[in-house]
Amino acid sequence: MKMDDTIFLFLCTLLVWLMTPGLSLFYGGLVQSKNVLNTVMQSMAAMIIVTFTWITFGFTLSFGTGNDLIGNFDFMGLQHVGFAINQDLSPHVPFALFMLFQMMFCTIAVSILSGSIAERMRFIPFTIFIIIWVIVIYSPVAHWVWGGGWIGKLGALDYAGGTVVHITSGVSGLILAIMIGNGKKIEKIQPHNLLITLIGGILVWMGWYGFNTGSAYSLNDVALASFVNTVIAASGGAFSWLVLEYIVTKKLSLLGLLSGVLAGLVAITPAAGYVSYLNAYIISICGGIACYFVINIIKEKFKYNDTLDAFGIHGVGGVVGAVLTGVFQSHAVNGDIDNGLVYTGNIHAVLVQLIAVVVVVIYTILLTWVIGKVLQKLMPLATTEEEDETGLDEIVHGEKAYFYGELNKLNKRY
Q1: What's the CATH superfamily of 3-397?
Q2: Segments of the chain with pLDDT less than 50
Q3: Does the model's pTM come out above 0.90?
Q4: FRET partner for 348 with CA separation of 20 to 30 A, picked from 215, 246, 339, 406?
Q5: Which helix (H) or strand (E) holds 95?
């Protein structure tokens, strides 16, 4: 065990923890003022629910020895998880700290997912969905990629969760939103407070440095490369998004800047510790372009109900980043991996990444649909007309975020 690595991962874990309340604020500012507390509560409740689910079943199913498809129950209830290292999973840091770092990834994944169904899904069914989702979707995929499962053995790379976190949460959010959206009016929501969204975006942005850098699990050259690449990617995603936005609308919006930052960060996540600085910029630019296109053209064309574009940014950005990892991965940056397409001319690395992405997308779609259908048989998922009209904050939580006369008028207007 290395004490400097332990301190390093401890700090990164705190940064990743900060991302969930940050994302709750980011989403909260984007919804109608009468639903802001409900939106924030979806992310904050995720922290409570995921903690319980992770320590009982999620961690052991993700990282237990098991087989190629799922972990066993060796770590159920966190037995055998303490200060000592685990030679296979946490050779540099206490195993319990590794467990907590991974728990933060699962938590932010659930918070991301909530953006697709904000203002559309009833709170209690959402909390039940979270528990099932962590056990049957997130944990198996985490095991496939990081826990000794078939994707890892295939040779597919996912440095910090482009597939495990962003593709699963983004795709699940889209499927759930489509299921809930049937029969509900689809309308473009006007953000009620972009300053709250800015504060949340800054917290998520800052937390991402722990998200990517900590995934090296050691304060080494790979950690530094991933840190630099993360800084670069945030700017690359914002740059490409704003250029497109100006070409199309002749405007440069704050929301566009923040969306571009997130798109770039998502795209670099699976590749952060595997690619050079220049290639990180290329990946992030591609991520910004792809996410802008999906949100502003594809979504408008097909009218699906991805409320806050969790799929448009996280699902799409995760796919772009995962595939481009196979294109730009570099042995010079990370000695544990092989060179990718641009260095060898061999498409094998890209094909491996594509196989992993396609299987995870299909698995996530099918399992989300099954969970949603089962829950629909037991209880209604969509909000009622009264809740849509009056607001979820007052009806579900008995609270209001604002009590000022002007903002109360806006509640009625929006």
Answers
A1: Ammonium transporter AmtB like domains (1.10.3430.10)
A2: 407
A3: yes
A4: 215
A5: helix 95-114
